[in-house]
Amino acid sequence: MRIISGQYKSRKIIAPKNLPVRPTTDMAKESLFNIINNNYYFDDISVLDLFAGTGNISYEFASRGTENITCVDQDFGCIKFINQTAEKFEMPINTIKSDVFKYLEKATGNYDIIFADPPYNFPDDQFLKIPELVFANNLLSENGMLIVEHSKHTSLEQATHFSYQKSYGGNVFSFFEIESE
């Protein structure tokens, strides 16, 4: 995987083969960050990266100037790898080793962007639980956005606060926002 833009543009990051991950493809990641770039200033936002895996998405935010990034993953190897990479590049990434659903049930905080990339083989009710918990616990800032990555075989359009989705090959990003009054 590589960092697409920002301070660490073109840097390759090689994750250990034994991590239970499926990193977001460069094409999908570039398209996602074009959408985010049109809505936010990277140096002004706070980010929560759920099911962080290799940290691929968090490195991209850090490279573009985001200084408030939290990664949550339950795999010790993933957390260790993210910590090592963040230290190597001096990136402001905080990690939390936790089951994402348990974390969301107890989380307090306010994030401008929450990105979730759960395993594609999750049942639909697990995918739907992510926006349910994020909005029930008011984890998004007023103009915040929840982005859930999933396969084209999963539909999240029926979820509360669903706004729109974008597809890139087999990857789909569903966007959720607080409805303005």
UniProtKB/TrEMBL annotation:
Keywords recorded for this protein, A-Z: Methyltransferase, Transferase
Show the PROSITE patterns listed in the entry.
N6_MTASE
List the EC numbers from the record: 2.1.1.171
For this protein, the record's InterPro entries field holds: DNA_methylase_N6_adenine_CS, RNA_MeTrfase_RsmD, SAM-dependent_MTases_sf
Name the enzyme's class.
Answer: transferase
Q: Name one GO molecular function term.
A: 16S rRNA (guanine(966)-N(2))-methyltransferase activity
What PANTHER family does the database record attribute to this sequence? METHYLTRANSFERASE
Task: Indicate what this protein is called per its UniProt record.
Answer: 16S rRNA (Guanine(966)-N(2))-methyltransferase RsmD
